[in-house]
Design a protein that fits this description.
CATH architecture of the largest domain in chain A: 3-Layer(aba) Sandwich
Strand content of chain B: 25-35%
CATH superfamily of the largest domain in chain A: HUPs
Number of strands of chain B: 13
Strand order of the largest sheet of chain B: 9-8-7-10-6-1-4-5-11
CATH superfamily of chain B: HUPs
Oligomer: heterodimer
CATH architecture of chain B: 3-Layer(aba) Sandwich
Structural class of chain B: alpha/beta
Chain lengths: 328, 263
């Protein structure tokens, strides 16, 4: 099997939590692999990231350059193409940075590209079988790829569990001299931090969360009425924000907020993994969706196949009745 | 500005339950409602808004077969000036790299300042734009959720990163951008608009027209091959409530109360 590398993203001197997942994925491809971490950056923060990876990765390739102090995918790609030998297998997290870097990297390395995998199910020689999802997670597919000519593989965050790892004392190898001068035609200017919004959904114990099933802006009130009687807040999935029915600050997911409620009512939400990535703390999830095949039913505690536009008002009404009885 | 948008016709997952055929070799396609991939539609809208400001033309291209013409016409009804179908039996079963190679061959025959794709297709993997850019040796950015045209043949773009934050960059033209949903509000296309472009000829280009080596595309060129489809095993799986609506509501309220959610 070819040499396996894991590209480790980092921020503020800390390795991304995908570092352990990429290690587990590398081991799934080749149990005997001693995967090499690739870390690009600049200055003392880069050094502390490299240092932190030595206990899990047998080798850590440090790529230091002032131009890499912000992770610009174009520059990182140029650097990786210089240091990686043909035939290398490179693993990356399938996140906003992996999506930016990996497809082009595969072309420049003349390697196969296997995107967004959830599992590795079979190894026959160099032919590796992976599991992917399509159609928003409604169906999965096995895909096969001969990785011997090299492969760039992106791993869906959260799908490979960190495995117990015999501690190693990794060697840091400084590859900085090999990258030559880098130049970008895409230049980072600044990061604009998300606006706070009127309601902080991260602070609520109950969320009434709506998805595409709410159908139109005028129906958002149905969810708000339920939230009002429950003392909850209304949150949502991406399509609701795309359609401008709710503010971005209400969005739960990897590109929105991470929430930790006790109870999460997923109303007309299909359950795309980007959405589920924003739900932490193992809440009690009630899913209501017209589509019995909606992936949300795989992760919910309780599921109801129904039209939220009819179900939610009746639920609200029932709670009101109960509250008026107990008030008497 | 000459803008090319790469679009794809896909089963609309908000309208369909996706099921498998008996052999598990494909999804059941008989009853599916198809439409233009959502992110691709946002890309066309963005292209139209750019040319409305700075002038130019929007062309829309797809790799597929005759049935895929319908999405080209739909995007032309939105305002795109040209629709082009890249179709050849040799193209079938292409992997992402194969599709990118076909598109690259088309792009190099023309002169485009900006190439847009949707960030990801319903049945895709967010790969075509980045591969196409690398093949063309153009700069690339993914997950783009704002575009501003600057002087000196440059754009100022925003990318969606974690937590709703946005990464702002400047990028040289020509470039390839993959467009995230929500970047704009795509205009409505009525039946009248579709009818108006119903008879506009759509050029179809095959492997030889494009100078594509058949060994690099289609099944022959695919390095990643789909073995089968399957329905994922349910995780822990929800307890499905199958009572009447009233019964289900009562049960949900019991459960929420038990979890401390009702006062």
């Amino acid at each position: 099997m070819s040499r396996i590398f894991a590209y480790i993203a980092h921020k503020g001197g800390l390795a991304d939590e995908s570092a352990a997942e990429l290690l587990a994925a590398a081991r799934a491809i080749d149990a005997a692999a001693r995967p090499t971490a690739l870390v690009a950056g600049h200055g003392p923060q880069l050094d502390s990231v490299c240092d932190s990876l030595r206990s899990s990765y047998a080798e850590v390739w440090k790529i230091a350059d002032e131009s890499l102090s912000y992770p610009n995918a174009e520059l990182v790609r140029q650097a990786l193409v210089k240091v990686l030998a043909p035939g290398s297998i490179v693993l990356l997290a399938h996140d906003h940075f992996g999506i930016d870097l990996a497809p082009g990297l595969s072309i420049k390395l003349n390697a196969a590209f296997v995107p967004d995998i959830l599992q590795i199910t079979q190894i026959e020689g160099a032919a590796v079988t992976f599991v992917r999802q399509e159609f928003g997670g409604q169906v999965s597919a096995h895909v096969r790829c001969d990785v011997s000519p090299g492969a760039v593989i992106t791993i869906r965050p959260g799908t490979f569990k960190r495995a117990p790892n015999a501690p190693v004392v990794g060697l840091i190898v400084d590859k900085s001299a090999e990258i030559g001068s880098l130049s970008a035609r895409r230049r980072y200017l600044q990061t604009v931090v998300a606006e706070a919004g009127d309601v902080d959904i991260t602070k609520h114990t109950i969320l009434v969360s709506i998805g595409r099933g709410i159908q139109e802006k005028d129906n958002v009130g149905i969810a708000q009425e339920l939230a009002d009687v429950l003392g909850a807040a209304v949150s949502c999935s991406r399509p609701v924000v795309d359609a401008k029915w709710l503010e971005k600050s209400r969005q739960v997911g990897s590109s929105g907020k991470t929430v930790k409620p006790k109870v999460y009512l997923a109303c007309g939400i299909s359950g795309a993994f980007q959405h589920l990535a924003g739900i932490k703390g193992n809440p009690f999830i009630v899913a209501i969706n017209k589509n019995p095949k909606a992936p949300i039913f795989q992760v919910a505690d309780v599921g109801i196949v129904d039209d939220i536009l009819e179900f939610l008002p009746e639920l609200t009404e029932k709670i009101r009745e109960m509250q008026s009885v107990s008030a008497k | 500005m000459e803008i090319l948008v790469c679009a794809k016709r896909v089963p609309d997952t908000s309208e369909n339950e996706i099921t498998l055929n008996r052999a598990g070799s494909d999804i059941e396609r008989e009853e599916l409602v198809y439409s233009v991939n959502e992110a691709d539609n946002y890309a066309v809208e963005e292209a139209l808004q750019i040319v409305a400001k700075v002038g130019g033309n929007v062309s829309v291209v797809t790799v597929g077969d005759e049935e895929d013409e319908e999405i080209l016409r739909r995007e032309m009804a939105m305002g795109a000036s040209h629709g082009i179908l890249l179709s050849d039996p040799e193209f079938q079963m292409s992997d992402g790299r194969g599709i990118a190679a076909i598109l690259k061959a088309f792009v190099t025959q023309g002169k485009y300042d900006l190439i847009l794709t949707g960030v990801q297709a319903e049945d895709g993997a967010a790969q075509i734009g980045g591969m196409l850019a690398a093949m063309l040796d153009y700069p690339f950015a993914s997950l783009v959720n704002s575009i501003e045209v600057l002087d000196n043949y440059k754009l100022k773009i925003g990318r969606e990163i974690e937590g709703g934050n946005r990464e702002i960059s400047e990028i040289d033209l020509p470039c390839v951008l993959s467009i995230q949903t929500g970047i704009n509000e795509p205009r409505y296309v009525g039946m009248r608009g579709i009818r108006a472009v119903a008879s506009v000829p759509i050029p179809t280009l095959g492997a030889s027209d494009l100078g594509v080596d058949p060994n690099t595309v289609g099944e022959a060129g695919a390095r990643v091959k789909r073995v089968d489809y399957f329905v994922p095993a349910l995780g822990k799986g929800a307890e499905m409530l199958a009572g009447s609506r009233e019964e289900n509501i009562d049960r949900v309220l019991e459960l929420i109360a038990a979890k401390g959610g009702l006062k």
